[in-house]
Fold each of these.
Amino acid sequence: MRAPSIALGSLELVPLSDGFLALDGGAMFGVVPKPLWERVAPADARNRIRMAMRPLLVRGERTVLIDAGCGDKMDAKSAEIYAFDRSRHLDHALADAGLTATDIDVVLASHLHFDHAGGFTARGQDGVARPRFPRAQYIARTGEWEDAVHPHERNRASYFAENYVPLREAGVLTLVDGDREVAPGIRVRRTGGHTMHHQIVMIESGGQTAVFMADLIPTVAHVPLPWIMGYDLYPMDTLSFKRAFLREAVEREYLVFFEHDPTVSAGYLREKDGRVTVEPVVRG
Ligand SMILES: [Zn+2]
């Protein structure tokens, strides 16, 4: 199977997959009542909805991987809770794109929750977690790193040190502050909301812009303003960033990537009569 690839100026964008997981539907939609959300995201017998984990590959002067899914270090208890389906995972997706882990130059983190950063490291035969992409420099935001290494009761279930501390120990982690370019055409932009330092990734080439939205708008169902995850630590910050971002994305015709949507990888946001909808570009 060949991975779909999208040209953006001189860059090539390839949505990848690290499989699926299932999260509590109520937690995924915050204040939205179940009779509304279950129409668009049907729940299983344990009230969970199916979500994809879709890292994004950007090929240009450098080969950049944005997020890396949950990886293969999760224990049996987590597998039970989150129903991981990794029958096809990131290694398969990279192979479909003609790549292996050694081809990745830069790994960029939207934030350090396990479903985004778990794939940053892998355990060796000795059981020790090490950087999974041997040639890569990893980039995360300083504030996110500080939160991840000092978790509290409300976010502890999402942060696992083995996903990112080995990067620092191996000397392959660069922490960046502020909104800035991290590779040619690739810029990070803090949203806050989901975590205080959660960031999206703006990708620009040839006058076109694509955006990896990470957990700002994780699925197509999360496009309407009040559809905000219960997981978000600062939902009012999500709301204000999202309000401004949706307007910007419609006006400037950004190609947006949904990291968690089970069927739509990318699309354009269109507005009609004050309602924003998604015109899918890449499915599956
Ligand atoms: Zn997530």
Amino acid sequence: MSDYEPVLLANVCKKDIHTLAGYQACGGYRTLRRVLKEHAPAEVVAMVRASGLRGRGGAGFPTGLKWSFLPADHPGPTYMCVNADESEPGTFSNRVLMESDPHQVMEGIILSCYATRASTAYIYLRYEYPLSFRRLRSAIDECYSAGLLGKNILGREWSLDVYIHRGAAAYICGEETGLIESLEGKRAWPRIKPPFPAVEGLFRKPTVVNNVETLACVTHILDRGVEWFRSMGTPPRPNDPRDPGSFGPKLYCVSGHVNRPGCYEAPLGLPCREVIERFGGGVWKGRKAKAVVPGGLSTGLLAANELDTPLDFEGPIRAGCLGLGTAGLIVLDETYSMIDFLHNSCRFFAHESCGQCTPCREGTRWALDMVERIKAGRGRLADLDLLLEIADSIGIIPGTTICGLADGAAWPIKNAIRKFREEFEDHIRRTNPQGYTVSEPVPALAAMRA
Ligand SMILES: Cc1cc2nc3c(=O)[nH]c(=O)nc-3n(C[C@H](O)[C@H](O)[C@H](O)COP(=O)(O)O)c2cc1C
Ligand code: SF4
């Protein structure tokens, strides 16, 4: 790690890097020119597959494998949806790439469209990113003028158009089929899968949905090679046939109670503690960490005794979290209340649930009602098990909902209560001395709140 040289962030502070001239002066589009001359699309897919690149948008699905699901004999068109919705709390790495080095993003998009034979790419951009919008729009214009987009790119018999579609500030638009529905002009209600987008996606045509950082990695794999990419990260665990390993560079976002919040690059698998100390400058005000969200709010919490967990795709799962997610770390110092953490989390997910599935729509609301009651000093010890029962019943993992938003709502509840139960119990006993032992069924929660 000590001699690691960033690649994704290598150019972010360089002068005029956001312009075509600036990017090309640093070697930009060299890989695109070479790959289009030397490799057929299927070869590019094979290289990305061999690299072991896994999606950086949250689920960690192997990128080359996803591309290989596109039907080979389909008459087309095939679409690429670039997921730039980036609404996961604690996550801002896509923004850094798009604002600071938009042509790096464009080169990754063009190469990935070439590999998948996509003829149109839509960048689904979070609305609250106006600078990303301006930078990408001007990068796209420059690419058209330079023959890097449009008809017969670099003299090949392949054409590509790229459009930016600005979202309307809803978390659910980042879920890949919610994104597709939204692009089609409808309410962003996630679709039941299968069929998966690779077979039937945007406008019912084969579609790939990939995150901005995932696509940015593609250029570097093709430039530096598969072995370079696989030389960093965590290899598959020999006793786990389902672990494909976690390879390549990763952007870690660090926020919350640290001295130096920011977006940093390192190989996958760095221990959480090292990310906080080395990059985040340690916990602020000389305090200790009480807990850390390892990968965006929906991944849950690592407790202070779990901070040596490696931040690869498997590490946080082994520590009882949902996964690595986006590697957006939120550090909570020792003075921060877990009740406040859970209240904020439940508020977010209840607000963002799209409402299609009853367990998610009702469960996130009930959880919020209960946490509000606990916070207001009317909690009962029995509420903690009731909250866990809700959290254990909603989501794709128990199989009761269409999309993963409900899993994301559940994990902060499970981790906060299972890992910090004593704090919740103390709060309930202290703030509700008369009623904390009551365990009869609770009257309508809305009435309790009045
Ligand atoms: C509620 C919800 C929100 C999501 N938001 C995003 C997002 O903002 N950006 C993103 O890339 N992926 C997001 N995802 C994951 C996408 O559904 C999808 O897995 C990802 O875009 C695939 O790209 P990747 O394979 O390159 O990671 C979200 C998933 C869920 C369930
Ligand atoms: S799980 Fe929640 S957000 Fe996802 S489709 Fe169902 S109701 Fe909507």
Amino acid sequence: MTQPVDRPDVVALVERLVALARQREALIGPNDSAPVRERARELAQHTSSYLLPRARDLDAPVLVVLLGPTGAGKSTLLNTISGGPASETGVLRPTTRDAVVLATAEDVRRVRQGGPLGALPEARLRIVSRGARTGLIVVDAPDVDSVERDNRALADVLVEVADLCVFVTTASRYADQVPWDVLGRVAERRLPFLVVINRLPAGPDAAAILSDARARFVERGMAVATDGRQISLIGVSEGDLETDGYRLRPGSVRPLLDRLDALVADRAARRALAEEALAGALAGLAPLTHSVADDLDHQAIDADALRRVAAGEYSHELSLLIERLQRGGILRDEVVRQWHSFVGADQVTRMFSSGIGRARGALMALFRGMPQAPAAAVQKGATDDLTALVVAHAHDAARRAAANWSATPSGAPLVSADAALWTAAPDLAERTRLALDAWIRDIGADVAEAGADKRPVARGLSLGVNAGAVTIMLGVFAHTGGLTGAEMGVAAATAFLNQKLLNALFGEAAVIEMVERARWRLRETLLGLMDAERARFDALVPDGAQLRDLAGRLRAAVDDAPPPSG
Ligand SMILES: Nc1nc2c(ncn2[C@@H]2O[C@H](COP(=O)(O)OP(=O)(O)OP(=O)(O)O)[C@@H](O)[C@H]2O)c(=O)[nH]1
Ligand SMILES: [Mg+2]
């Protein structure tokens, strides 16, 4: 007998498994192979359509499924059980195309909604209540070796939701391969089962066939049921039919009828079967659950690899961009020239030549009269130039990341489903401009603050903050480092004058600090923009850590399941 399992624990465990299986199913993506999807779907379906309702209600009617190849006599057996013509039998194969459910109306209600039969399409169920007995549901399934794919699928679902399987075959069919595949699943799922072999020849051949069949079960490790009993193998002789032709003589399958009678008569017997089936199903879920966990681990490896590729391309482009900034000379000449003609104007130059002390006053006058400072135009020019540069680098990163992804089996379907990955995001230019405007506003705030404790400067600054911010901004861009040849002229000269102007206004140390801070903030801004670009790739790939965590929790859940037999 199966060890009685602790109900609340099992219910909690099954609920945990259901939640994990659903999470796993939700993580299935377009690049998962058919077997991976199938395993995920099977786990989700089996946990929620069989395990959960069974764990929550061990007193729900027991579900017995008659399985086997076409023409084996399943419908004939259902009629034998019901005592009347419940299911049509026939010579045309396959005869039974929908699941014929022998159950009382009340029992059907009990298992239909959210219960095991809820997993089956309503249109494929034919309910027969005449001859049904409370507590016992018997389902005559479509044949397992059906040429009709739908029939096979229906039989597969029935294997998942049953509490007891009656495998019906014949003396000439029992060695066929397909039914053995289905029996393999019955064994894996540890579904209690018994076997009926129909149409045995008369004489000593019958015993030989039964013992050969038994040997085949032994060979497949199925000779012993989960409860430690030998499987029941019931032989039925050819021609053991009632005169009405649609059912067997009850005496020929007496052990099966007795077992069903006992289930109907005794609630405790039904409960014991339900417990055995539940514990078996839980234990039988381990291989599938471990495969699903392995799938998740493989998916995590692929996901991490894809993320690493994208991250590598974006960080490479970001460092090229920053290197470019450090080399200087990214601003177009005409932008620099505008500022040069302002800071290089006569009065400014004269002011520098007459010494810093006196320059302050002149500077204030200059800043007060700032309208002529081309701050807005220079800010726009610099922003445009830097934006173009950011977009160009983001574009390169996107192109290479997409190309690398499309060269991998897990990345290719993602890239081919989203052509936008090959280029920078269409709104990147706009977002960059906004981010750079915010960056310059921050510099302006620094300038205002630095000027605040220099009273003469402060007085003039209300108008001069923009010009001050642009001055610092150019301090970040237009330094001389790395400039060569013709560029040296206007850019270097501007940088030189700019520096002088700044130092005169705020003092050298404050200027160095402001430029450094602006440079640091610019890096952060660029990093944020590139990160957002890369996030388009990341979003298509599940988080590796999350996948591994789910795999671990799935394994832990089935490893916590109680052993199936005592
Ligand atoms: N002569 C003879 N015919 C039998 C015997 N047992 C069953 N049959 C017939 O075999 C045919 C097939 O039986 P069914 O019960 O319809 O088989 P099934 O397994 O339900 O077949 P599908 O619905 O196609 O999956 C029927 O015509 C039965 O009357 C038997 O012992 N002797
Ligand atoms: Mg049939």
Amino acid sequence: MRITMIGTGYVGLVSGVCFSDFGHDVICVDKDPAKIEKLNRGAVPIFEPGLDQLMARNVEAGRLSFTTDLKAAVDGAEAVFIAVGTPTRRGDGHADLSYVMAAAEDVAGALTGYAVIVTKSTVPVGTNRKVKQVMAKVRPDAEFDVASNPEFLREGAAIDDFMKPDRVVIGVQTERAAEVLAEIYRPLFLRDFPIVTTDLESAEMIKYAANAFLATKITFINEIAALCERVGADVKEVSKGMGLDGRIGNKFLHAGPGYGGSCFPKDTQALARIGQEHAVPQSIVETVIRVNDAVKTRMIEKLRDLCDGSFNGKTIAILGVTFKPNTDDMRDAPSLTVVPALVGGGAKVRVVDPQGRREGEALLPGVVWQDDPYKAVQNADLVVILTEWNEFRALDLKKLAKKMASPHMADLRNIYSPRDAKRAGFVRYDCIGRPGLSLNAV
Ligand SMILES: NC(=O)c1ccc[n+]([C@@H]2O[C@H](COP(=O)([O-])OP(=O)(O)OC[C@H]3O[C@@H](n4cnc5c(N)ncnc54)[C@H](O)[C@@H]3O)[C@@H](O)[C@H]2O)c1
């Protein structure tokens, strides 16, 4: 198959590279010349484990190329995937569809024969029909179908998720479009991965419903964690006991500093907005958004408490600022709420993150970036584990505590335990939904 991928971000680039690895001929297009220049040099503009090798292999095999020239890339394509951003529109929470619609218009102008235009971006119900209308207006003569193919990959594990998905969802209006998509995903068909073929609206809805459900699960356990702290229960034990119930499952039951990232915050907001527009308010999702904001604020209060009531003049080391490990993505990361509160409160903040600096430098003004956690905690009053990178999972806690002015730790990912902390010489240790350690108070 000849595939064109519009957008070479976290989804478009991974999808394009993986499709080429399936054996298809793929041309990836981006309007950002700097990104395309990098890709043409063999450099990957984002951090995603394994992507550089897979990309190099397929470029070398002559199945994968990159360009800014959308017209040339669409010429002769059997399927054109739109994988551009759909960020939250300023002011109203709605998904900003301007990038999708602009891409659709450009694609319409460039079509040279029948093609299926596949929206991979996460878009509100009804968008694919709008894409069809917009394209037909630009090119009433063009022969094409639209299809919805939402993406479920997780950053940090994107290649594996794309190659071994729980399911592929395809929304179509015609048999012809279904056949093109079946051919594209044939390698997965052959390996028995479930393919859900449905109508456009259901496919669009599946993506929002799935993300909102996962965000709800995380938020549920975060709220239970706050209650655990009050009643003396341990949320880790509670999650385990709940998760072993096959009806519940153990995924997305890890209490933490609130969900962030490029998808859950914007997709929950967009779904809430869609509900309001159709006079069917999604009250559970609206509550999840509110509670998640409160969870992030609760983290600031935890840190303030560990700083004896004020950040002013304190030195605080933050370990991890990306929204999760194994990505450089900072979009809506909890660090963007927590760190400015510390800086604004008068703290000197040092930050360590294996991949976050490139994006984070502009987003977190007033912090000092360091490469080494042990250097970052030198004479510090508090160390905060905000993202559970592997690098922070097996720290020498004794060494860490020794270097600090006051050995206080906030473990917002529950990596360590009060026992570990005490043994290492920490006098205060707070975590999420479990009893902490406060030797000062004993
Ligand atoms: N990031 C994820 O983990 C993830 C997972 C599933 C679904 N999604 C969805 O996939 C979509 C893309 O997300 P992303 O994280 O890859 O976004 P991104 O911001 O990383 O990438 C979007 C890319 O599209 C390019 N672009 C925009 N308009 C263009 C145009 N007209 N022509 C060519 N290129 C254009 C931009 O320059 C950018 O490189 C979103 O709708 C998102 O919700 C993302």
